[in-house]
Amino acid sequence: MKNLWLLLLLTVPCILISTPIDTVWSKTYEGSEFLGTDEMIYSNGSLVFTGGTWRTRLWSTDQQGSLQYTHAFVDTIEGQVSGRVLYPLEADSVLLITAESSYSSPLDSWTGIHRLAPDGSVLDSAYIQTPHHFFVTEIDQFQDGSYIVSGADIITSLYPNPYQQRLMRFSALGDSLWSISYYGNAADTDTSFTDGAFMDVAVSTTDDVYAIGTRNYRNPSQLIQLDFTKTRDNGTLQWSLLLDGYSGSAVEIAGDNQIFIAGTHYMDSTSYATSQVFIAEVDTSGNLLSSGSFDLGGGVSIKDMILNAAGNLVVTGFRSPEDQFAVYVAEISLECDTLWTKHMSVPTYISPHSIVEIDRDNYFIGAEGDQKSLIYYLAPNGVFTEKWSSHKPAEGMSNPRVFPNPSNNLTAIQFEMYYPNETVMTIFEIGGRQLLERDLGLLYPGQHEVFWNGVNSAGAAVSSGTYFVKISSSTQSKSSRIVLLK
């Protein structure tokens, strides 16, 4: 194969002239548990995407952004569920991989493997227990139909540096084949190594596994390092390519095991404003064949890369030099020719997470920022369209709903928590005097219902009249009126 790019030591940054584009229109959908577009797939005219903080939500739209369905994915272990990975299956079904942790026991953690019907409903599920909450980032498939997922263990005792690199393989039926943490592997000779996570994984035609991520260090002179690792199909480590001053985001395998990696090059470790897009070709032995750093005006961070139908690399990320925020997409040939690059100015920090190709030069880009999730559409003419955005409430709870109202005895009070918090219910007279206080304890995200039977703290029935119920957390309070008619 030809020398595609300059060797790393002789790299001269490629200057990409980025054409600005405008947002044409947008749609907004509410979803309290939804923040961030973690993964997207496109199949037979439908875009399916997932995300979430304390609960996973699935969405599906057509190419025009019209909502086809939305499902809140509730777990079975009464805990946190983060939907991170989607994978297309036959007959328009979808594989959803979730990271799940019990609220009552943080060590009770699972990787959920869920097969979903075309309408988003769950067909079947399997669970693999993990020693820690497993932050899942990406998935690929072996020749025998089994799967590999990348990510990191989140070990709460190690905060503020809790991440440890992990790969997990499971069968097509959801049975665990192996799960290995690569924190402290043979390539780790620097004891200042703090933490790391694999952000992407790819399987070659020979079933070798290539995972890319970033390591962080306590040593101020070595703040960040790209980690590109190869293992065999049984998880045995073959080699790790480590590059100082780079972070790793994506890996793609083209043609006959041509391996390309992408990330961010920090030209000056003291200034994020100098960062550039970094793309390199690596051989199967871990040798860096060639590389290019691409200048998009500074302050660039790459988040995802795909190989499009034309055989070129398409990258997406964000740019934020001196608070001039932008989302960008660029297509780069394997010969390092810049075919096009587009950017859209945004009013605040917006970070793309994933990109999918619909057909030639038509792309969907999933992003998050400003307390909402967004889907952008990039047409062949270079026009960005904000397809829709899902706002997450900045407040921690909804207003309580009371029924029946008026009531003559028992009153139901319903409300939704958006974040975990200690919560108290209080009943007041219209003049402000407190009649009753009840500690509801630690409530987690979701719908909650409590009842008031019309008595005060002494157990005595109150008279007909107007009262107020207040639901309070450590950060805010919400009130509603109750009318008693006896």
Which features does this protein show?
58% strand, elongated, Methylamine Dehydrogenase, Chain H, 5-stranded mixed beta sheet, Immunoglobulin-like, single chain, mainly beta, disordered N terminus, 486 residues
Q: What do these coordinates show?
A:
The protein is 0% helix and 58% strand. The model is unreliable at 1-35 and 184-190 (pLDDT under 50). The chain has two domains: 8-391, Methylamine Dehydrogenase, Chain H (7 Propeller); 401-484, Sandwich (Immunoglobulin-like). The protein is elongated, with a radius of gyration of 25 Å. The strands form nine sheets. It has a five-stranded mixed β-sheet, with no helix packed on it. A five-stranded mixed β-sheet has the order 2-27-26-25-24, with no helix packed on it. It has 486 residues and is mainly β.
What's the gist of this structure?
This protein is mostly beta strands and 486 residues long. The protein is built from no helices and 38 strands.
How many structural domains are formed by the residues?
A: 2
Q: Strand pairing plus helix content: what structural class?
A: mainly beta
Number of helices: 0
Question: In what range is the share of β-strand residues?
Answer: over 45%
Shape: elongated
Annotation, overall tally of beta strands: 38
By oligomeric state, this entry counts as single chain
Q: Using the CA coordinates, give the radius of gyration.
A: 25 Å
